[in-house]
Known about the structure:
This protein has helices at about 5-15, 60-70, 90-100, 120-130, 135-145, 165-175, 195-210, 220-225, 250-255, 260, and strands at about 20-30, 35-45, 50-55, 75-80, 85, 105, 180-185, 215-220, 230-235, 235-245. With about 260 residues, it is an alpha/beta fold. A hairpin with a 2-residue loop joins β9 and β10.
Amino acid sequence: xxxxxxxxxxxxxxxxxxxxxxxxxxxxxxxxxxxxxxxxxxxxxxxxxxxxxxxxxxxxxxxxxxxxxxxxxxxxxxxxxxxxxxxxxxxxxxxxxxxxxxxxxxxxxxxxxxxxxxxxxxxxxxxxxxxxxxxxxxxxxxxxxxxxxxxxxxxxxxxxxxxxxxxxxxxxxxxxxxxxxxxxxxxxxxxxxxxxxxxxxxxxxxxxxxxxxxxxxxxxxxxxxxxxxxxxxxxxxxxxxxxxxxxxxxxxxxxxxxxxxxxx
Length: 264
């Protein structure tokens, strides 16, 4: 078999396992006569089960790209295939259904209801998705356990939790509908470095142990390195796309038990 033939076989295998395929995505905003081009022909794929960081400075276009990947916005031109279906030009109501069924979001600001319990916050997406009442509590408890939050915190109000615990609740909320893809937008931005590291290892565990596909948006290389692949964006263009050896737990956090990590 020729070398070229071998490479072609691998590429065909990759295509069959693509969860996300972006083809020449552009995004242009207009304000009066002013035209601002934010994305300038973005193309890449993400396979099912990958953990990818999208990294870039402020103004690079990474947040706009996240909004398109997360079906919160549509591109000006180009094609976005999610699980093999083109969603780049779908109406808002269809995109909302896709977000509810296929996507989970984790944000820097947590976006939790402060006067509701942890369980109530995690159950809320199930209410919007009209999941039968009898199924909601087991699903919420399973998601909280997967996110690593100690069970003795589940009935606390979220404003009684630490920053790390609140982000674990946000992760559980993202998991509760069993999404195909988790999008994390600067998830450690409001956390101290130690707590942020533990939260990032939670994403690694979800990827490694559960096969979750995760896209992490960040401006910081030390955060991006927790993934297996880094896509760097600058001025609306991809300037680098490389696979790396993900960052491992440092010795201090290796010695922290799972139960101890869940209280941080």
